[in-house]
From TrEMBL, chains A, B:
<dbReference type="InterPro" id="IPR028082">
    <property type="entry name" value="Peripla_BP_I"/>
</dbReference>
<keyword id="KW-0804">Transcription</keyword>
<dbReference type="InterPro" id="IPR010982">
    <property type="entry name" value="Lambda_DNA-bd_dom_sf"/>
</dbReference>
<dbReference type="Pfam" id="PF13377">
    <property type="entry name" value="Peripla_BP_3"/>
</dbReference>
<dbReference type="InterPro" id="IPR000843">
    <property type="entry name" value="HTH_LacI"/>
</dbReference>
<dbReference type="GO" id="GO:0000976">
    <property type="term" value="F:transcription cis-regulatory region binding"/>
</dbReference>
<protein>
    <submittedName>
        <fullName>LacI family transcriptional regulator</fullName>
    </submittedName>
</protein>
<dbReference type="InterPro" id="IPR046335">
    <property type="entry name" value="LacI/GalR-like_sensor"/>
</dbReference>
<feature type="domain" description="HTH lacI-type">
    <location>
        <begin position="2"/>
        <end position="56"/>
    </location>
</feature>
<keyword id="KW-0238">DNA-binding</keyword>
<dbReference type="Pfam" id="PF00356">
    <property type="entry name" value="LacI"/>
</dbReference>
<keyword id="KW-0805">Transcription regulation</keyword>
<dbReference type="GO" id="GO:0003700">
    <property type="term" value="F:DNA-binding transcription factor activity"/>
</dbReference>
Length: 351, 351
């Protein structure tokens, strides 16, 4: 691998001029720049950005930390890959690259992040799957690494975040089901401390309250956010003495497992149990009857995350004068057949 | 963020002792080590591994370069995420971390890799989706960065690779179809220069030859490796005057689009057209009739990739004395209903 010195010798130009040409400075004439770039290509010159980065204290790389649990990968969850295009479209404006940091399933996310921070691989971080108490937010604040979270947390204060509108989803799902005559509405909520579970449950409780429906803790089914979790949720619903007539799911792939368990028991979604799923997802499109769920644009969310992050970084904030605005990301209801039946006043199916 | 100096002052121990304690050297007594680690945690000490890495010339990070095309992400292709667990289980033995480098769909993979090499983010690379001519292999060889490819190429010589057994898949699919009486067997092959397409086509031609079946170029359908490509393949098969009685697919998600187009035309897979898919995939499990396809373990492949890579790295090769062995990764046939019918001698359906 050739360095800048060999390149300068080969061209018989000063190292300073070669450096300015390679770095696109304006004070180099076009012909010289062209000669330098051609020679750099021919000689296999590779800039040592690591040395440069250490001087500047930057790597020009932005990290997206994701969870890589067995369930996520086996389910073919495409959420994070779906963000990359939008993120990259913004980062490439500033010659920044995106890398993904998959936290192993058997490792504590805080310990993992601490190590990745120590490795100084990235200039800034996007973290996701925020917990109710999330030490990663304190870590990033303390170490002064610019970051944005996908998801809120009770930890930290005044940090930039973007979150999906779990409250809005819970409210519009309950409203829709109540309008169809349902009053015993279950939810499948996450069994861990992920923050979205708290928001979703709050939204659900408030929506019930608005409609004058008493909250029944037995209708909150705690399961894993996975296809298998959906199967488990259906199983538990079928065991309830006073069975709900409707269920709202909080994770996109739950619907698949839920349908499977219901079908095994001869309970037809959209006829015997109203089902509202979460995010519209390629795999869930196969479900019959079609699933009522919520649509959002992953590429647009990627753009918003990247712009929010850059607005917090001193080197780029002037490009984003509106600053890092926290944002609740909307989801739009997509009506399907899975919640299509109406209950009469007697609680019996009407059509 | 506290550095090692502040930590030493706080504990009133020499910087050298603190450093040896943090780095797990044996010549520090247990009590001192414990005190140092507790204080490091309390004070928010973060080791500056970047400085250390520059001295050692290492980052302790391994990169997995993936393609992040719109089709891949929208399809929820879980292939690469499926590798991470196996890769990490090996890398963690050596305190190495895995990062994923998603090459934007609008960027040339060679230019992208050149930039990532210059950024010095990783010690070694795993690259995938190798092309017939793949300049990335020359780049990595020239810059002396340890690497392994997932997929072979006509570029380079004597580099470590692991490849799925596309030849074996083509051969066993043709054998199976011929045993069922088929002789007009189409294949859906990739429309780009990805190397696996060449291997697959060669395997198909040799298998036909073994059975004394003339190769008919009109039965090689060139489409994108995507669900949409599968739809297109079915469309083109339906337009053929002398329609094939069977088709073999080279990409896992093609089957979904292919089924859809066939169903639209009233052509039933497994009754009117025999279909053999590629890799068994969660989404394709929904297909009715069930798809005959091939099974492999992504986690095991991740382990093999990581061990092969480490065997090429001077710092780790002594752990892997068998060296970097190139390897054709087997796939096992999973019989389904999609190729279940037999043709009689007259080329008509028998059952």
């Amino acid at each position: 691998m050739k360095g800048i010195r060999q390149l300068a010798e080969h061209l018989d130009i000063s190292i300073g001029t070669v450096s300015r040409a390679l770095n696109g400075k304006p004070d180099v004439n076009e012909e010289t720049r062209r000669r330098v770039l051609v020679a750099a290509e021919e000689l296999g010159y590779v800039a040592n950005q690591s040395g440069r980065s250490l001087r500047q204290g930057t790597t020009n790389v932005i990290g997206l930390m994701i969870e890589s649990s067995k369930e996520t990968t086996e389910n073919g969850d495409n959420f994070f890959l779906g963000l990359t295009g939008g993120l990259q479209s913004v980062l490439s404006r500033h010659k920044l690259d995106l890398i993904m940091l998959p936290c192993p399933s058997d490792e504590d996310p805080h310990e993992y992040l601490k190590r990745m921070v120590a490795r100084r691989v990235v200039d800034a971080m996007i973290i996701s799957a925020t917990q109710r108490i999330d030490k990663r937010i304190d870590l990033l604040s303390r170490t002064k690494i610019p970051f944005v979270t996908l998801g809120r947390s009770a930890s930290g204060s005044n940090y930039p975040w973007i979150d999906l509108d779990f409250d809005g989803v819970a409210n519009s799902a309950v409203d829709r089901l109540v309008a169809h005559g349902h009053r015993r509405i279950a939810i499948a909520a996450p069994s861990n401390d992920i923050n979205l579970g708290f928001i979703f449950l709050d939204g659900y409780r408030h929506a019930l309250e608005r409609h004058g429906i008493a909250f029944d803790p037995s209708l909150v089914i705690r399961v894993k956010s996975s296809e298998q979790g959906g199967y488990q949720a259906a199983h538990e619903i079928l065991l309830l003495e006073d069975r709900p007539t409707a269920v709202i799911l909080i994770y996109e792939l739950m619907a698949i497992g839920l349908y499977r368990r219901l079908t095994e028991a001869g309970v037809i979604p959209g006829r015997d149990l109203a089902v509202i799923g979460f995010r519209e997802e390629p795999r869930a499109k196969f479900l019959q009857p079609t699933l009522t769920c919520f649509r959002m644009s992953l590429p647009d969310l990627g753009v918003e995350l990247a712009e929010t992050l850059l607005a917090t970084m001193p080197a780029y904030s002037h490009f984003y004068p509106e600053g890092a605005r926290n944002c609740i990301w909307p989801l739009e209801l997509v009506p399907g057949e899975s919640d299509g039946f109406h209950l009469g006043n007697n609680g019996q199916r009407r059509q």
